[in-house]
Amino acid sequence: MTVALIVACEVGFWVLLAAGLAVRYLLKWRRISVALLLSEPLLEVVLFVVTAIDLKNGAEPSWEHGLAALYIGFTVAYGHYTIRRLDGHAAHRLAGGPRPTGPPRYGMARARHEGRLWLRTVLAAAVACALLQAAIWYVGDGNTESLRSFQWVALRAAAIHGVVALTYALWPKKAPASALPARDPQHVPDLTVGRTGQDEQQVR
């Protein structure tokens, strides 16, 4: 049941997001759009409550409960970020707004961007670990091995993402030559200045 609820929450997240953006930019109903987008966190609340009730009713802690905690943590950390980026694209395509700027691709700007994403992953791992620890305390002396294993999954995910983000700072990705800004023409030496042209030599 928990897995089905996670799938339903994921589908509900995208349905509410699409409905909110469509209502905002196609129908111009801004208040209804805000209400739809603000209802997104309710999905995580429902998932958390159902998971807690499942454990309270004596369900054996399993990977399903661990997966629910990871999903809630990811949504808390990346949900608003996802909504903000898609809102920019919807404003551009549906309302004639400016084209949203993509993330930087090269140099230390890219490294800083990756670092900010890593901090979101750390937040996701922290939320997931906190929920799992609360479940472990709630279960008490029962079998909580699966819950503890998902705590390690969350920590490993944050650690791996941290290593990947660090590589962008240690070895910044260089822009290709075609992407480099052109030099000011006045700083480019004119190799033809001071030379006698071929046509001029022929005239002489």
UniProtKB/TrEMBL annotation:
Protein biosynthesis is among the record's keywords: no
Gene source species: Streptomyces sp. R41
Identification of the protein by name: Integral membrane protein
Keyword Protein biosynthesis part of the UniProt annotation: no
Transmembrane segments: 6-27, 34-53, 65-83, 117-140, 152-171
Region entry Disordered, spans: 179-204
Keywords in alphabetical order: Membrane, Transmembrane, Transmembrane helix
